[in-house]
Amino acid sequence: MKLQATGTKGWFVHQKVVVVFIAFMIPLVAMNIWVNYKEMSFTKKTITDSAVAGASFYANQLDKELYFIRSQQLQFVNDKDLQKLSFQGSTLDEYALFELINQTKDRLSAIQYSSELIVDAGVYVKEIGKTISSIGGISDTPNYESEFIVHLAGLTPKPSFYQKDGRLFFIESENNSGIISYIEISTSRLREALRQITTLYQESEVFLGSKTLGHVLSTAKDQNVIIPLLAQLEEGNKGNANPSRVIDIAGASYFVMTCPVGSLNLSLVMYVDHNEITRPLRQYSFWFYALFVIAIVVLLLYSYSLNIMIHRPLSKLTKAFQMMETDNLNLVIESKTRDEFHYLFHSFNRMAFRLKRSIEENYEHKIAIQQSELKQLQSQINPHFLYNSFFNIYMMCKVGDSDGAAELSQKLGSYYQYITRNGSDEVPLYKEYQHALDYCEIQCIRFSNRIRYEHEEIPDYAKTVTVPRLIIQPIVENVFEHAFEDGMMNGILSMTADYQEGVVRIKVEDNGRLLTDETLQSLQEQLRDESGQQEKTGLMNVNNRLQLKYGAGSGLFVSRSQHGGLRAELMIRTQNERK
C-alpha cells in the first residue's frame, strides 16, 4: 500500500521553520526598507538642496548685479558735475556747458559698459532742457524719450523698478525732478541670465514676479502654471521660511524653489515637474521593489522546498502510523531519495513487517486458545443433566406420556447433536438462538412446576448474521444452575436477540433472588480482568472468546435485571473482526 501525504491538526514542522525564518527575516527586511527609505530621502534632499543652492547662487548673483547697477545710478545722481548742470546749467558759458555735458555722457557710457544687463543709461536735465543718453546721445526736449521717462517718474507710489511696453527701467530723480536718471535693463539678457538657472534641471522654468505684479519675466512658453503658482507661494510664504516645497497644480506636482531678489522687490521662482526631480531615483526604486519581490519569491520557493523535503516525507510517516493504529499493517513507504528519511522509511517498513508477523503468530495462538476453550465448553457438559433427562423420559414412559417422552427425546437429541458437532465454529444467529431455546425447553420440562421461559422472535434481517457457536447456552445454563437453585416457584427466564449497525446484542435475564450486590460486583470485575488469570467458568470462556475474536467493545456484560435477578448481555461488534 502506497502512502500519500496527509494533513493533521496544528502546526507542521515545515510551517514552524518557515514562521521562524520569516520572524528573523522581517526585522532585516524592515531595516533594509528603512535604510533604503532614508537613503532615498537623503539623496532626494541632497538633490533638492543642490538645486536650491544653485538657484540661490544665481539669484544672489543677479541680485548683486542689479544692486551694483542701482548703486552706480545713485552715485551718478549725486555727481557734482550733474548737480552743477542742474543748478547752473543755464548760466554757464557754452564751453563750460559743453564740457559738463560730455563728462556726463562719458559717465553714462561707463555705467552702461559696467554691466551686460544695461541696454542704455541716460539722464533728463530739466535746467538745460536736454536728455543725455549713452546710446541716443544729447537731445533737446521735449522729445519722446524725455516724455516717456518723465511720465514713468511721475508714477506713485514709487516702485522699485519701472516696466513699460516690455522695457524695464531703474529711475531715480533729484532736485524736485530737475534730474531724472534712468537705466534700461535688457530683458533679453535678463531672460538669458534666468535661463542659466534652468540648466540645473532639464524641463525646469524660472520667472521673476510677485502676486501683485504677476510674472515680470519668464523663461516658460506655457505660462498657465505661473499665476496659480504665485498665489500658492504667497499663501505658503506666510510663516514658512522653507525656500522649497512641492505644490500641486491642475493634477500635477511641481517642485518649487523661491529666492528673493531685493533689488527688484520680486521673487525668483524656479519650478520643475516633481517627477523630473525623482527621475534619477526611479531606477533605484525599481530595483528596490524588484529585490523585495525576489525576496518574496525566494521565501515561497524556500517554503515549497521545505514542503517537499520535510513536510511530505513526515506526512507520509505520520499517515503510516495513523493507519497502523487502525491495525492496517499492509504498509510499504516508498522512498526515492537516499537521505535520512530513506533510513526512517526503511526502518518503518521492517518494523511493520515484523509487527505484522508477530501479530499473526500471536493471533494464531489466540485462535488456538479459542478452539481449546470451545472444546472445554463442549467437555463441560454436566452429566447430571443427561442422567436427569433420561430419568425424565423414563418417568414419562411409565405414566404413559408418550408424546412428552417423544418431544423430550427429540429436544435432547437435537441438543447433543449441536454441541458435539465439529463443523464450522460460526453458525447463523437463528441456529444458536434455537439451540438455547431447546436447552430452555428441556430444562422447563424438568422443572415444569416452577420455571418457565419467555423469548422474542429474531427479526428476519438478523437471522442470517453469523455468530460463534455456544455463546448463549452457557449463559442460560448459568441461570438454571444458580438463579433457581433455592427452589423458588414462578421462576422466569427472558431471552432476546437483535442486530443493528454491525452490533449483535443478545440479552438473557432472570428473576432469581440469590444474586447479591457483592456477587454481581465480583462477577463484573472478573469479566473486566484482562490478565487471563480468572477461573475458566462458562461465562468467562464466552467473554474471552468474544474479546479475542472481536476485540475491544465486544464480550459479556452483566448488570441487575429489571426482574431483580441477573441480566447478561452479549455484545459482538462484527465490524471489529480481524480480517
Automatic annotation (TrEMBL):
Residue span(s) of domain HAMP: 308-360
One GO CC annotation: plasma membrane
Gene3D superfamilies, per database record: 6.10.340.10, Histidine kinase-like ATPase, C-terminal domain
Pfam families: HAMP, His_kinase
Membrane topology annotation: Multi-pass membrane protein
Subcellular location: Cell membrane
Transmembrane segments: 12-35, 252-272, 284-304
Claim: Nucleotide-binding is one of the keywords in the record: no
A molecular-function term among this protein's GO annotations: phosphorelay sensor kinase activity
Primary location group: membrane
Record bears the keyword Transmembrane helix: yes
Domain of life, source organism: Bacteria
Keywords assigned by UniProt, alphabetized: Cell membrane, Kinase, Membrane, Phosphoprotein, Transferase, Transmembrane, Transmembrane helix
Signal peptide as annotated in the record: none
PANTHER family given in the database record: SENSOR HISTIDINE KINASE YPDA
Stated name of the protein: Histidine kinase
Naturally occurring in which organism (per UniProt): Paenibacillus tyrfis
